[in-house]
Target: Glycyl-radical enzyme activating protein
Amino acid sequence: MPADKGLIFNIQRYSIHDGPGIRTIVFFQGCPLRCPWCSNPESQGAVRPLTWTKNGKTETISHWVTIDEVLDEIEKDEVFYRTSGGGVTLSGGECLVQSDFAANLLREVKALGINTAIETTGAMPLKAIKKVLPYTDYVMFDLKIMNPILAKRVIGDDVGQVKASFEAALATQTAQVTPRVPLIPGYTTKPENLQQIADYVHEVGINEIHILPFHQYGSQKYEYLKRNYTMKETPLLTEQEVDDIHQFFTDQKITAIVSGLE
Ligand code: SF4
Model:
């Protein structure tokens, strides 16, 4: 993977969902997982430029960019980062798939005095997160399916790898780490999975998590990609169901904050 160029599919300015304050989000192409609920299905798979067909037109949805090109976009909103306590977040896909580019970009952003964050699910060998941690102020770390056999079968995830990456982030003592749990009916919200998440965060000494209720915002993208979206008929969680999960974590002495978007 090149260290001086990255393949990205979006730069979103003025986000308030992906870390503190007003942020610019850089969406990285590529993800080794296959979560059936993924709201960015265009990011899945290898790091390669992709096209989709939208309103009868074929569009290229990811582009190679240099660090300077991304920095030019980022610097446009420096004043907002300063006044809101915001900054820059690398998202995806899984930004650790392009860990050399991610590390170089984060280093340059940090050198400008701008707060840096990553959204990750840690689904890469440990060395990937170790490259970016020295330049990362805030890690939003998704914990999904914790049973190793189910995780491997359903989303292609290696729970051992996830835990190793999570614990490496915690061990830095410099990055703030927030575990996030996407609440996906039939998958992550099963009682035994929630219990395994609670047990794990206790084990690593954390008492606060963010919970992100399931949404359907990405469903149209599956049509553009001519892919079947298996969760189209899955209803959103009711307020009561989210409250019950919140209460479950409260009973476990874990503060659960209902948070933005998965
Ligand atoms: S880890 Fe995120 S980007 Fe990758 S498949 Fe799952 S939801 Fe999609």
Summary: The first strand starts at residue 5 and ends at 15. The mean pLDDT is 95.
